[in-house]
Amino acid sequence: MIKLKDLLLEGISKKEIQDIVKKVYPHIAKALGGSPVKVEVHNNIYKRIGAIGVEDLMKQNNPSAEYDWDNRIIYLYASKMKNAEEVIKSLLHEHTHTKQSRAKFKKMYDDGKTYKNHPYENAARNSEKNWKNYLKHLDKS
Fold this sequence. Notes:
This protein has helices at residues 4-7, 14-32, 45-49, 54-60, 84-98, 102-110, 119-128, and strands at 38-42, 65-68, 73-77. It has seven helices and three strands, in the order ααβααββααα. The chain has one domain: Zincin-like, CATH 3.30.2010. Helix 5 packs antiparallel against helix 7 (119-128). The chain is mostly helical. A hairpin with a 4-residue loop joins strand 2 (65-68) and strand 3 (73-77). The radius of gyration is 15 Å and the shape is globular. Strands 1-3-2 form a three-stranded mixed sheet.
């Protein structure tokens, strides 16, 4: 059994990330609405897509998670996950995107919105604020 105090420390394995997902994500989907989607854990985005020069790319932009609209998959990237808080926040953020309109999401970016002022990103960031509500699910076997 993973102990909550251990998960709030720095450093977390792919197996621990998967265990957090298994315990927490169903509760996130229920609370936020919508259907749960598949969640995959990869080391980083660049290895997942088979990019060349991974180390250099990771220095430039290495996301912690992303939602794949086409395949309805949330990808979590272990190289950016340091603790349970980051995993839970990423799940909350990306699940929020599963309930949003892809066309409107893209149009707002096309119309000049940035990550900082995009309404859908703001909604996803706001959903992260409740991450502590899900810690109680981690102490359960």
